[in-house]
């Protein structure tokens, strides 16, 4: 009997196996079946020196289907063995130089199952438990960094990233430590990824990129898809505002990256492209990647970004539901109040919109820390303009008008004219007209330009500003021209580096 069909293993050929190379190398020992089962490489072996019994395949299949129960029994057996003979612990500490506990239970918990071997004929199952230095390395690196970090913060009483000139020597020490480790373990993904992050903090972005690109090229056949996705995501972050950014992030996505940073990065870069090009395809992509990210985590930034995409798609009711949900979790968060107000504006709910707008305090939200938690005053009063609440709009404008160059504030001039504030209208137009003319004359006699061409470019720019001002003024006075303002939202453009020592370490 050379061929067997089994419901779990499929077709088994005891004469040839699945790889003739094994037959050549190991004489009569063949690989009959080999797959990654539940993330563990599992191999069915057969030695033709033994009788092959079909029934043993059922036993092997039952073992794999219920492997977790058997693994627990194996771990208990291992604990009992190590109480008698701790040589395996000594090996990991001395030969592999791992900083691990002597405590048996803790040691066993750190062990991972690397492979399962099913021996048909011998009717034997072997499970390989070990602590891989590669698996353990990130913990070792993190412990070293935490010591450096604690020493610094105890001495200076401040966050380690607050003062670069003071932190630089600490980062240099960390880099030296990682480089030494990298010489010992040149194929370790944890080391190279953290080292690249340190290079970035030391402002050597090109070093970070070269490290990872050289690494993934050299070990492409060795590292798994998860590690490749990790490296590609990091490279996507390092290639900020470069076409390679999208290329690397998409590579990670294609590998079904398990990292939230991959999809956060793709969502943010897509939205950035949308802001720049105003293409609906980019907005669709951003929404799609935020949706992917939400399958991994429901954290604030991801939910917020998803809602922002819905808002930009004019799905105001759907966006509002999410903003209100987040508002219940983060009470009186100014950005959420503003976003909810914007949704109410476009839903035609004027009273509700004004209610939320009145609650918004401009500036940095004292209770929260993200960049989106910093509210600009114009983000509030422009909403009043869109609502048609022109008195409120002018009232808010007048509070901050001196802080702005508002020669191109068409909606402000329109409102002045609409509310019969003609004197103020003419005063503003005249002021900026005279300012522009003065700038032109001063530029003509200015000798600080590198060349005449540069000077003429400046003069031309001022002349264009003057023409725009006059055209806008005439249109408002004579053509019933009403400027259109679009209220816009944007996501939190935060870090999406998987191995960021600043945010993820």
What is the overall pLDDT average? 90
Number of strands: 8
Individual helix count:
22
- Oligomeric status: single chain
Global Rg: 33 Å
- Largest pleated sheet: 4 strands, mixed
Straight-line N-to-C gap: 57 Å
Attribute tags:
two-stranded antiparallel sheet; 505 residues; alpha+beta
Q: Topology, please?
A:
Blueprint: E1 3-6, E2 10-13, H1 20-25, E3 29-37, E4 40-47, H2 55-65, H3 67-84, H4 87-95, H5 104-110, E5 112-120, E6 124-130, H6 133-156, H7 164-184, H8 189-201, H9 205-218, H10 225-238, H11 243-254, H12 260-277, H13 280-294, H14 300-312, H15 316-329, H16 334-346, H17 350-359, E7 363-364, E8 374-375, H18 377-387, H19 390-400, H20 410-418, H21 422-444, H22 452-478
Parallel strand pairs: 4-5
Antiparallel strand pairs: 1-2, 3-4, 5-6, 7-8
Helix pairs in contact: 3-5, 6-7, 6-8, 7-8, 8-9, 9-10, 10-11, 11-12, 12-13, 13-14, 14-15, 15-16, 16-17, 16-18, 17-18, 18-19, 20-22, 21-22
């Amino acid at each position: 009997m050379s061929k067997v069909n089994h419901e779990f293993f499929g077709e088994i050929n005891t004469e040839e196996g699945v790889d003739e190379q094994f037959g050549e190398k190991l004489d009569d020992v063949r690989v009959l079946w080999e797959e990654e089962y539940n993330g563990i490489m599992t191999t069915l072996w057969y030695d033709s020196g033994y009788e092959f019994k079909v029934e043993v395949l059922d036993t092997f299949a039952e073992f794999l289907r219920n492997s977790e129960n058997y693994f627990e029994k194996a771990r208990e057996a291992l604990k009992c063995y190590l109480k008698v003979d701790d040589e395996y612990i000594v090996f990991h500490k001395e030969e592999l130089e791992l900083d691990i506990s002597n405590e048996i239970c803790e040691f066993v918990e750190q062990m991972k199952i690397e492979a399962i071997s099913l021996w048909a004929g011998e009717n034997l199952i072997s499970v390989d438990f070990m602590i891989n230095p590669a698996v353990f390395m990130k913990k070792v690196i993190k412990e070293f960094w935490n010591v450096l970090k604690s020493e610094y913060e105890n001495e200076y009483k401040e966050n380690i990233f607050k003062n670069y000139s003071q932190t630089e020597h600490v980062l240099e020490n960390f880099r030296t430590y990682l480089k030494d480790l990298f010489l010992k373990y040149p194929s370790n993904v944890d080391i190279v990824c953290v080292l690249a992050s340190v290079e970035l903090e030391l402002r050597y972005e090109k070093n970070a990129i070269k490290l990872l690109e050289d690494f993934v090229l050299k070990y492409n056949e060795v590292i798994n898809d998860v590690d490749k996705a990790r490296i590609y995501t990091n490279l996507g972050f390092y290639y900020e505002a470069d076409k390679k950014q999208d290329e690397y992030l998409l590579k990670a996505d294609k590998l079904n990256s398990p990292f939230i940073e991959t999809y956060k990065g793709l969502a943010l870069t897509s939205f950035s492209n949308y802001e720049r090009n105003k293409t609906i395809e980019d907005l669709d992509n951003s929404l799609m990647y935020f949706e992917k990210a939400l399958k991994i985590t429901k954290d604030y930034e991801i939910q917020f970004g998803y809602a922002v995409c819905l808002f930009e798609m004019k799905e105001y009711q759907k966006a509002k539901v999410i903003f209100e949900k987040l508002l219940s979790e983060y009470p009186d968060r100014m950005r959420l109040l503003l976003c909810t107000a914007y949704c109410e504006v476009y839903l035609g709910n004027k009273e509700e919109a004004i209610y939320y707008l009145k609650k918004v305090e401009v500036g940095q939200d004292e209770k929260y820390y993200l960049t989106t938690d910093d509210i600009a005053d114009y983000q509030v009063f422009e909403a009043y303009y869109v609502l048609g609440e022109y008195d409120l709009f002018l009232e808010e404008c007048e509070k901050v008008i001196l802080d702005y160059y508002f020669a191109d504030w068409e909606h402000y001039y329109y409102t002045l004219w609409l509310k019969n504030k003609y004197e103020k209208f003419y005063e503003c137009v005249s002021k900026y007209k005279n300012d522009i003319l003065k700038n032109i004359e001063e530029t003509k006699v200015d000798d600080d330009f590198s060349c005449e061409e540069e000077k003429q470019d400046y003069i031309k720019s001022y002349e264009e500003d003057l023409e725009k001002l006059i055209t806008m003024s005439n249109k408002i006075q004579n053509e019933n021209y009403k400027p259109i303002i679009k209220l816009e939202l944007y996501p939190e453009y935060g870090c999406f580096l998987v191995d960021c020592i600043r945010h993820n370490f």
